[in-house]
Predict the 3D structure of the following.
Amino acid sequence: MKVSYHGHSVVKVKTSTHTILIDPFISGNEACDLDANKVEPDVILLTHGHNDHVGDTVEIAKRTGALVVAPNELALYLGQKGISTHPMHIGGARTFEFGHVKFTQAFHGSSYTEEDGSIIYTGMPGGILLTVEGKTIYHLGDTALFTDLKMYGEMNDIDLAFITIGDNFTMGPEDAMIAAEWIKAKVVVPVHYNTFPVIEQNPDDFVQKVKNGKARKMEIGEELVL
């Protein structure tokens, strides 16, 4: 299985049978190296409804027929746009053909802003525990630090985690370092930084400060083999 990072919170997981995209904010994301007109996922997983996470979901799903798995209200909203969705909710888990998905808590907001400026409430935000081919990836989504992260670390053998460090809208580096310790992942990768001026951070500094040397910065387009 190959896992790659594509700027902001965009993650691609390529297994022996499926390609999975998480939070595909591609168009308008200068940090992203993917082409929304060419990427070919079988599945799209969404942590919440903000535009910088939903991104190109509808266009990609219409073109490819990808299944979109998302928190309930977001899935229902996107389903009205003519794509295939599967609604889930916090604490819920399901085994799909491509792998096992469980939604965790995330302390954030979730809404989608339409082109006319209207705002659509899209339910609770979440994190995603994705278990595929015997490995578990934890995408925390946009979140503040909260103590239940300790529980997720104790309950799951997490191989790779993606943790927000941008601050202002999510955890900053200091809180993310605590989160990294609590979830006990073998490898921690910082995400959700430097896309906009308000979330500019130094990922190298974060990586150096995380205990036990288990954090690493992933370059745009870089792949890890799990």
Observations:
- The chain has a mean pLDDT of 97.
- Helices lie at 51-54, 57-64, 72-79, 148-155, 173-183, 203-209.
- The CA atoms of residues 155 and 183 lie 9 Å apart.
